[in-house]
């Protein structure tokens, strides 16, 4: 089920909607029976054949038959539990008297997110296997015609088509012999069928819908791309992120869900490999009522504070912080009144920063609850927002350059709680393209915490970002270390305009990457209109007047955002490596090659710095080439939900993410968010 059907089925994921789910699926079944005649003449998009393991089974034995299925290019079929959308295949058997068919065994599926809906699908050839019981007492040579009618849904990423097929084969009672080529095919198909896990798994539910599942799994066993597929709806939210960690001889999967009792699931442990598990309520390591997630929330909060503190040195944030510090120096807050004013401004600035971080965090949690795979800085995936930020950066740069003064908020001038609040909000908003140490892991943890704890983590990010100015406001000794007011402050203000102009330049480049030359032209034209309006406003201010009607020109410049559209993503340069896909990663690991996979975005400043300073250095490339290290690049500029899902699985809320897969290692090594050439060269060795 895809964009055209998504609105009608968006409510299927909501807890307590089991009756609606059943009604929807009955409706689809009705559509199958009514629409199938209209589509029966077209070639099916799933090529199928019915293959018996033995064409001469013994009387009284069991013979396996496989439905060898090969999707056409760009199409996919569905698992027994289709996920948020889709419909499982319906099998109707016509068998000789006394012959019975068992329940199909389905191979491990793949994940596919379309329009924010999680689908459990097969985009590659697959073969469900069914055991047929042959009646006892049949004479050799007895013919056993087997017929199965399949009604199923087959989809691309844009459309879905209900189809029907009738498959037949004929068995003859015999000696049970199996041809070598058929045995090889069934061996291959059976390897993709999940193996039953002999030991029971346990699960525990936490506050806010958090679900933790503990699964027995040897500590030294290989593990690649783990994912837990619920066998039926109602136990695990399909679109919820999953964090998988090792705890000795157990795996702990943390996600969201509300199972009413024991439930079945399939744990993927590698490409086309899985374990069939059954989880019952019980103890899970690290879960003690609400204490487990509370400790995790405290750790994530501390990481967010440290990450926010580091953001202050970013070129788009540092000028704003510096100007607020200079405003304290200019005000000379030494007396009782000045002391109070400094504290008020510091609290107001902090309030603005935290308010924006909470707003962005709330938007992320809301969108994710609706099925979207968004993360930190999600708004920068929209070129219209890039244009707004471009115009804003140009306006700030012109203000710092002395072209005009802004009466409210007061970026560089006198105090005032309103101006300080607006300045803090602005600082938080323009900091969103950045990510640094501590911050990525903290925000990734927030996505699997209950929503109150998650919002506390986002508030911690804002607190860290506001901490320097907060300390200046409440610690007089720090303010006394600030230089005394003087003419030098205006010169410093002009110097601080330089990083803001560089920020504007970077946003113009990003707009070109996302919306093409036409989009960048619209953005530059909007910036030109804004500059002209502010030049007029500055002339009016020098004459003793206000900005006046120039605000209308500023609004007109922002209207250009409506003219900007996204172009197709640019192809990655060959020198940067291959485009990332889970299939390509799996193939490289089967070959035994070391793999460096990194996830980036054009709007991520930290990503670009790491790429230029470390990843793209000639010495690093030479070291990787000597040691045959494969490089995979995941470009998340446009918010690709498939990449978003993979990033979430590694406990990250956004980019950058750097992973190194050593040959034979069961899990990747997650590298720091600040890279050096020496670090990467050492990996190759």
TrEMBL record:
One of its GO terms (biological process) is cytochrome complex assembly. It is found in: Cell membrane. Its main location: membrane. Gene3D superfamilies: Glutaredoxin. The chain crosses the membrane at residues 293-321, 346-365, 385-404, 411-431, 451-475, 495-511, 517-537, 544-564. Residues 561-685 form the Thioredoxin domain. Pfam families: DsbD_N, DsbD_TM, Thioredoxin_7. Keywords: Cell membrane, Cytochrome c-type biogenesis, Membrane, Transmembrane, Transmembrane helix. One of its GO terms (cellular component) is plasma membrane. InterPro entries: Cyt_c_assmbl_TM_dom, DsbD_gamma, DsbDN, Thioredoxin-like_sf, Thioredoxin_domain. GO terms for molecular function: protein-disulfide reductase activity. This is Thiol:disulfide interchange protein. It is a multi-pass membrane protein. SUPFAM superfamilies: Thioredoxin-like.
């Amino acid at each position: 089920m895809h964009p055209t059907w998504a609105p009608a089925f968006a409510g299927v994921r909501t807890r307590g909607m089991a009756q609606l789910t059943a009604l929807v699926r009955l409706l689809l079944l009705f559509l199958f029976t009514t629409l199938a005649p209209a589509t029966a003449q077209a070639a099916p998009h799933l090529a199928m054949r019915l293959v018996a393991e033995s064409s001469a089974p013994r009387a009284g034995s069991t013979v396996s038959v496989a439905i060898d299925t090969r999707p056409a290019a760009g199409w996919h079929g569905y698992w027994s539990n289709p996920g948020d959308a889709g419909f499982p295949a319906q099998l109707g058997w016509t068998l000789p008297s006394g012959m019975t068919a068992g329940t199909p065994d389905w191979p491990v599926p793949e994940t596919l997110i379309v329009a924010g809906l999680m689908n459990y699908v097969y985009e590659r050839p697959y073969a469900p296997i069914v055991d047929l019981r042959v009646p006892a007492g049949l004479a050799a040579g007895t013919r056993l015609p087997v017929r199965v009618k399949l009604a199923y849904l087959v989809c691309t990423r844009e459309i879905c088509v209900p189809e029907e097929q009738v498959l037949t084969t004929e068995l003859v009672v015999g000696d049970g012999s199996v041809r070598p080529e058929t045995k090889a095919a069934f061996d291959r198909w059976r390897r993709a069928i999940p193996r039953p896990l002999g030991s029971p798994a346990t699960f525990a539910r936490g506050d806010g819908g958090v679900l933790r599942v503990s699964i027995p799994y040897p500590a030294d066993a290989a593990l690649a791309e783990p994912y837990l597929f619920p066998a039926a709806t109602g136990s695990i939210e399909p679109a919820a992120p999953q964090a998988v960690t090792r705890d000795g001889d157990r795996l702990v999967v943390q996600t969201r869900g509300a199972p009413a009792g024991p439930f079945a699931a399939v744990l993927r442990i590698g490409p086309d490999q899985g374990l069939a598990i059954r989880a019952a309520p019980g103890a899970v390591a690290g879960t003690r009522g609400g204490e487990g997630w509370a400790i995790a929330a405290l750790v994530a909060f501390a990481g967010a504070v440290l990450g926010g503190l580091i953001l202050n040195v970013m070129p788009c944030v540092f000028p704003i912080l510096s100007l607020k510090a200079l405003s304290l120096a200019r005000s000379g807050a030494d007396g009782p009144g000045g002391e109070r004013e400094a504290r008020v401004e510091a609290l107001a600035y902090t309030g603005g920063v935290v308010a924006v971080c909470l707003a962005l965090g709330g938007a992320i949690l809301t969108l994710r609850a609706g099925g979207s795979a968004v993360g930190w800085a999600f708004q920068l995936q929209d070129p219209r927002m890039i244009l707004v930020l471009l115009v804003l950066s140009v306006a700030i740069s012109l203000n710092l350059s002395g072209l005009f003064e802004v009466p409210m908020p007061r970026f560089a001038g006198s105090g005032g709680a309103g101006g300080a609040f607006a300045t803090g909000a602005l600082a938080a908003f323009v900091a969103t393209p950045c990510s640094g140490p501590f911050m990525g892991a903290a925000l990734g943890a927030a996505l699997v915490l209950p929503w109150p704890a998650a919002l506390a983590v986002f508030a911690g990010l804002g607190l860290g970002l506001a901490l320097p100015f907060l300390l200046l406001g409440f610690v007089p000794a720090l303010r006394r270390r600030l230089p005394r007011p003087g003419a030098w402050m205006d010169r410093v203000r002009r110097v601080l305009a330089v990083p803001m102009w560089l920020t504007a330049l970077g946003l113009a480049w990003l707009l070109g990457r996302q919306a093409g030359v036409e989009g960048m032209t619209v953005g530059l034209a909007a910036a030109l209109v804004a500059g002209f309006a502010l030049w007029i406003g500055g002339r009016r201010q020098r004459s003793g007047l206000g900005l006046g009607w120039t605000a209308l020109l500023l609004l007109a410049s922002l209207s250009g955002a409506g003219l900007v559209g996204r172009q197709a993503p640019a192809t990655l340069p060959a020198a940067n490596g291959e485009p990332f896909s889970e299939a390509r990663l799996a193939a490289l690991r089967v070959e035994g090659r070391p793999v460096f996979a990194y996830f980036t975005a054009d709007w991520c400043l930290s990503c670009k710095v790491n790429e230029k300073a470390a990843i793209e250095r000639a010495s690093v490339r030479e070291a990787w080439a000597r040691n045959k290290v494969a490089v995979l690049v995941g470009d998340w500029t446009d918010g690709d939900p498939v990449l978003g899902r993979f990033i979430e699985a590694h406990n990250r809320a956004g980019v950058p993410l750097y992973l190194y897969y050593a040959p034979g290692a069961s899990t990747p090594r997650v590298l720091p968010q600040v890279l050096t050439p020496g670090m990467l060269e050492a990996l190759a060795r």
